[in-house]
Design a protein that fits this description.
- The protein has 201 residues and is α/β, with parallel strands linked by helices.
- 28% of the residues lie in helices and 24% in strands.
- It is built from six helices and twelve strands.
- The longest helix is centred in the last third of the chain and has 14 residues.
- The radius of gyration is 15 Å and the shape is globular.
- The N and C termini lie far apart (44 Å).
């Protein structure tokens, strides 16, 4: 088995209402690639997923966000789900934790509604990104160059739209996490694998 991420420590930040497939499938992909992943949340104990309109599987929290140290992690994963990021973005400790990854140029992967939390960092201006389609206007207003495509890679930032995109998302996430930190001085000069015109509305 390929252990591309052997020795990498990844922070996975989520809370109740995460989209079940968008947490468990990327988590499995990271662990299969050799990464050590911590589930970080607002409180200790367990958090519950959301699947097809009902509560789904729980997962144990490894560390609360107020106790987590971003310096101990090499990369950050933000799964989606409508409720999950809406709660996370409203928590000052979460925003500060995520901001430290941005400031250090550490790779970040966010899928579906996950990029909502990134909006609070003010780091999206000029970044090529995607997300769940209903966030398009929010992403534009935050300054992102939003694209309707299954996965967008922009200088250490990996984003995807929905559960159907998970295979492409996982592949690019592992590739980018393996590459490590980026030069934050380059964050204004965005790049993407496949040049596509900006989606307008």
């Amino acid at each position: 088995m390929d252990k591309t991420l052997e020795g990498k420590h990844v922070a996975l930040v989520a809370t109740d209402g995460f989209e079940q497939s968008e947490l468990f499938e990327p988590l499995r992909a990271l662990q299969d690639a050799g990464a050590d992943v911590d589930i970080i949340s607002l409180r200790a104990g367990e958090i519950k997923g959301w699947q097809k309109g009902n509560w789904g599987k729980p997962i144990k929290v490894d560390v609360t966000v107020d106790q987590a140290d971003a310096e101990n992690y090499d990369a950050l994963l933000l799964p989606g789900g409508v409720m999950n990021p809406d709660k996370l973005r409203d928590d000052e400790n979460v925003v500060q934790f995520v901001q430290k990854f941005v400031d250090a140029g550490k790779p970040i992967a966010a899928i579906c509604h996950g990029p909502q939390t990134l909006i609070e960092t003010g780091m999206l201006r000029g970044r090529k990104m995607t997300s769940y389609h209903s966030l398009r206007t929010d992403m534009f207003n935050a300054g992102a160059d939003w694209m309707d495509t299954e996965v967008v890679v922009d200088n250490g930032l990996v984003t995807s739209r929905k559960p159907d995109d998970i295979p492409a998302f996982n592949a690019k996430m592992i590739e980018v996490f393996a590459a490590g930190s980026v030069d934050i001085s380059l964050l204004g000069s965005s790049s993407k694998e496949n040049d596509q015109p900006r989606t307008t509305h």
